[in-house]
Specification:
Layout (H helix, E strand, L loop, with lengths): L1 H33 L11 H10 L2 H76 L25 H5 L3 H4 L13 E3 L12 E3 L1 H13 L12 E7 L1 E3 H4 L4 H13 L5 H4 L5 H5 L11 E5 L22 E4 L2 E2 L9 E2 L25 E10 L4 H5 L2 H15 L6 E4 L16 E4 L3 H9 L1 E6 L6 E3 L1 H13 L2 E5 L19 E3 L7 H7 L2 H19 L2 H16 L22 E3 L31 H4 L1 H6 L41 H6 L10 E7 L3 H9 L7 E8 L10 E3 L5 E5 L19 E6 L6 H13 L5 E2 L2 E6 L7 E4 L8 E2 L3 E5 H9 L3 H10 L3 H13 L4 E3 L18 H18 L10 E2 L20
Helix pairs in contact: 6-17, 13-14, 14-16, 16-17, 24-26, 25-26
Length: about 950
């Protein structure tokens, strides 16, 4: 049974082996019949293909292979051509896309330019309407109106009338027109001598005065044109004092004095021959408009310091140091200190440092009453005796304050002349007194004795105290008259006390804080330097005081005449500037305007009438009339819309606005204006051309002044970019960094942007700095900030520091806005020693300007934000890259501090950003600046 089953299984397997191939063969046949004709070769088995190749001959096979290779080569070439065409098409597409983007940018730029043109047209229409509606004259420098005749002959006046003289009844205003410029005539002291025989004027004073007045802009040679006439009457000394080395001249003078011993005692002490005075050619009978100058220098305590006492000088104005109470005519006569300084020039070496505030002695005084008072005179002045006793007790008191109060000279002074006036004489030498005052915080000044309201010795003490930085404490100031009291505010430079305050003197001196003490000391030094320090300062101050009294504007300050580096026949080549280098195409920064110079000399007749105190006590410059001042007042806000709208361009016509309206107008508190760029360069032509080219299209740019510091002229084939505004290339007098701040006459705007030739500032940065400067006109406003750091190792000097810091005290003038007024002060009033140091190091002119502005304003500079660094990355190495550059700047800061007497730089901890910077605003609004 089992075998039968195995047999069946074997038969089944054999059947399957036979049937399965048959079924597979049939299925394949059916598949071949159903397939399309095109698939015959594809469906051929691979074995058939091998059988075909094997059947071919070798030559046919070679030909077949070569044909296939040719096909392959042809296909490869076609593929490479297709790839090249594809790449070219992709490049074309990229170029077209780039061109499309450029066209879009150009469209935005043209749209922006169109908007600027529309704004410019609107601004021009506004300016036209303002010109039509203007009903006020254009003020400028007036035409000079001068008299053409000599003073008329008038009758003389009595002493009683002369004693009551004031400006309204004794001065001829008709000779002094407001537009006259205040002409002054000087009688030559060598020709018109009004001294008695045996007397003559100090030769130094005579010569120096003539030289000094020769520099004064008010002096005229024609007496017919003069407003006032100066007569030098003193200091008159005995000829034996002037010719000490000539024995025979001294004997002759003594004999002449003995012959005149019969003259009355009243006139013996007066060296003035009054008849000679009356016979002056232009005296006019009564001496009106004559100014008698009696300037003390050598003889400080003789009765000859007041030679005009009890002489009838009629209507002449007296200028001297010593006055009796019944002799001095307030607001008519003028008190001046003695001339104890040099003829002129720098005087800073005479001064002591202003710091520290507290010195060795709290109060000092050295003097001796000479000649000694009689018993009757001493009894009649009990208050003075009490004051002396109290001062002696104060010096002996057991306090931590040191006093040096000496009322007797040790060693004793020389015996005084018989005609010496009772007064507190000076002890010791000038150098010993100077050293004592340098060690004194305050200097006590006692009033002259008798009925004098001023004395030469008292004013000499005041002069020496101010020179050494000892704050004057003037006791009995309510009984005195101080120099130039009509214009100088002495309360800002000295402590003025009545005698009754003597018991509270110590308390008051201790109550003054260091800040106030240094303010008093600083103001005292300014007064001394500007008005008292030299013959020139005294003469200029006397003339300015008389002119100020009459309300006549001073002479205009002289500008530096710009000399072009090109001759009259040469026309420099022009080139097209690069467009759009430093501007965003979609950002409009301001309208395109024609050149508009800043209005000049608009306040000729009001500046010294309304701001006389400021001119004399703050600006310290009443001597010249400036085209504009950084201190000019701003109008009230509503005045821009009610009657005083001329020149104003409020944002959004007054309703305000964001970026779009902001870019259409300057706004602010001042009328429209433009700025001038001053570039100092030295033999870097290509760098200069690149910098000039970047200025194309800059709004509010009035002019570019290139100060050519090189002795070599520019190349003839140098192409200057045509930037749409005038470019004045000025030849510098010599290679000096001080030339950066010369007040050239071609600078016609108040705002000046001082930049280095390698500085790279974008348009938005420049305009933002300009807008910020318009709100801080009296300060330096710029980009690169630096600071002065204290040297902790030595503890007595400063270092110049350019590291990153959260404080700064200087803004470098390689990229900064400043007022042209400071360029005048830098060139004419800054001590010459500072400008010499700048030339010595060929460095530090920017530090000097920062010192000057901070010294005058007592304010720090303003740093504005910048988009990127302002340095030119591809420019050659500049002077500032050298290590010695920083060493020299260390020395400059310390030297300048020595010249000024202190370091005027002040620290600041902020910078200016535009108002909407980093402020989220609606999408339909624009920011003031896109990146600032």
């Amino acid at each position: 049974m089992r075998q039968f089953r195995l047999y069946k299984f074997t038969i089944l397997i054999l059947l399957l082996l036979v049937l399965l191939p048959l079924l597979a063969h049939r299925k394949l046949l059916n598949a071949e019949q159903d397939a399309p004709p095109t698939d015959v070769h594809r469906s051929r088995p691979l074995l058939d293909a091998y059988e075909d190749f094997s059947a071919m001959r070798a030559s046919d096979l070679k030909m077949r292979i070569e044909e296939m290779l040719r096909i392959k080569s042809t296909v490869s070439v076609e593929l490479r051509e297709l790839e090249s065409r594809r790449q070219k098409l992709q490049s074309d597409i990229s170029q077209y896309n780039q061109k499309i983007e450029e066209l879009k940018q150009e469209l935005l730029r043209e749209q922006t330019e169109l908007e600027r043109l529309k704004i410019s047209v609107e601004q021009a229409q506004v300016a036209q309407r303002e010109a039509v509606q203007r009903n006020t004259p254009e003020l400028a420098l007036p035409r000079t109106l001068l008299p053409s005749t000599l003073p008329r002959k008038m009758n003389g006046v009595s002493s009683g009338i002369a004693a009551a003289c004031e400006m309204h009844n004794c001065f001829d205003h008709s000779r002094c027109s407001l537009t006259s410029g205040f002409p002054v005539y000087l009688y030559d002291p060598d020709v018109h001598n009004v001294q008695r025989a045996g007397y003559d004027i100090d030769g130094f004073l005579k010569t120096t005065l003539k030289q000094t007045l020769g520099y004064n802009a008010h002096i005229v040679r024609d007496p017919k044109q003069a407003c006032i006439y100066l007569v030098l009457v003193g200091e008159a000394l005995l000829e034996q004092d002037l010719l000490r080395n000539n024995r025979y001249a001294a004997q002759e003078a003594e004999q002449q004095l003995q012959q005149r011993s019969t003259v009355s005692s009243v006139t013996t002490h007066s060296p003035i021959d009054i008849q000679k005075l009356y016979q002056l050619p232009h005296w006019g009978g009564d001496g009106r408009n004559h100014v008698l100058l009696n300037l003390a220098r050598r003889d400080l305590n003789s009765a000859r310091t007041n030679p005009l006492l009890q002489l009838n000088t009629m209507r002449a104005i007296i200028v001297q140091s010593t006055f009796e109470r019944d002799q001095f005519r307030p607001n008519y006569d003028l008190i001046v200190p003695p001339i104890l300084g040099p003829p002129g020039g720098d005087v800073w070496q005479e001064c002591a440092s202003m710091v520290p505030a507290r010195r060795k002695y709290l109060l000092s005084f050295q003097g001796e009453l000479r000649p000694a008072l009689s018993m009757q005179a001493a009894v009649s002045q009990p208050l003075d005796d009490f004051i002396l006793e109290h001062l002696k007790d104060m010096s002996r008191s057991a306090t931590q304050d040191q006093f040096l109060l000496q009322f007797q000279c040790v060693p004793a002074t020389e015996v005084q002349d018989a005609d010496t006036l009772p007064d507190w004489t000076l002890c010791g030498s000038d150098s010993s007194r100077k050293q004592l005052l340098k060690d004194s915080t305050y200097a006590l000044i006692l009033p002259p004795l008798g009925q004098r309201v001023s004395s030469t010795l008292m004013l000499a003490r005041l002069y020496e105290a101010l020179r050494s930085g000892a704050v004057p404490v003037i006791l009995g100031a309510d009984e005195l008259r101080l120099p130039y009291a009509e214009t100088l505010d002495w309360r800002r430079a000295a402590l003025l006390l009545p005698k009754a305050r003597i018991t509270e003197l110590h308390f008051l001196l201790r109550a003054v804080q260091d800040a106030d003490l240094l303010l008093l000391r600083r103001q005292g030094r300014l007064i001394w330097e500007r008005y008292l320090s030299s013959v020139q300062a005294t003469v200029d101050t006397v003339i300015a005081s008389m002119r100020d009294r009459l309300g006549i504007p001073p002479r205009p300050v002289p500008s530096v005449v710009a000399q072009s580096v090109f001759n009259n026949t040469f026309i420099p080549l022009k080139s097209e500037p690069p467009v759009g280098m430093d501007t965003e195409p979609e950002e409009s920064l301001g309208p395109i305007e024609p050149p508009y110079p800043s209005p000049a000399f608009r306040r000729n007749y009001t500046i010294l009438r309304m701001h006389s105190k400021e001119a004399w006590n703050d600006w310290m410059d009443p001597f010249y009339l400036y085209p504009q001042l950084p201190f000019d007042p701003a109008l009230p806000s509503e005045a821009k819309f009610m009657g005083s709208h001329t020149g104003f361009r409020p944002i959004g016509k007054g309703i305000g606005g964001a970026g779009k309206e902001f870019s259409e107008a300057l706004g602010g508190n001042y009328p429209r204006e433009q700025f001038t760029i001053v570039i100092l360069t030295y033999e870097r032509e290509q760098v200069l051309m690149d910098s000039l080219g970047r200025l194309y299209g800059l709004p509010y740019l009035h002019k570019v002044v290139v100060v050519w510091n090189s002795p070599k002229p520019p190349l003839d084939d140098l192409r200057w970019p045509d930037i749409g505004v005038p470019v004045a290339v000025v030849r510098a007098p010599r290679n000096s960094l001080n030339n950066r701040f010369l007040p050239f006459d071609v600078i016609e705007t108040e705002a000046v942007l001082s930049v280095d030739d390698d500085a790279h500032l974008r348009h938005d940065e420049i305009l933002f700095g300009f807008r910020v400067w318009r709100e801080h006109r009296d300060r330096i406003v710029g980009f690169p900030g630096r600071y002065h750091a204290w040297d902790l190792s030595s503890n007595n000097m400063w270092h110049y520091n350019s590291n990153y810091s959260c404080e700064l005290s200087m803004v470098l003038t390689g990229a900064a806005f400043l007022h042209k007024y400071y360029m005048y002060l830098y060139s004419y009033h800054l001590p010459q020693a500072i400008r010499d140091k700048v030339d010595e190091y060929m460095n530090c002119e920017d530090i000097a300007m920062n010192f000057l502005v901070s010294h005058l304003t007592r304010r720090p500079p303003v740093k504005v934000t910048s988009r990127w660094t302002f340095r030119c990355p591809g420019c050659p190495v500049s002077l500032s890259e050298d290590d010695t550059h920083f060493q020299e700047r260390h020395k400059c800061i310390n030297f300048f501090s020595q010249v000024f007497g202190y370091t005027p730089l002040l620290n600041t901890q902020y910078r200016a950003d535009s108002i909407l910077f980093k402020t989220r605003i609606p999408h339909d609004k624009q920011k003031c600046f896109k990146y600032i």
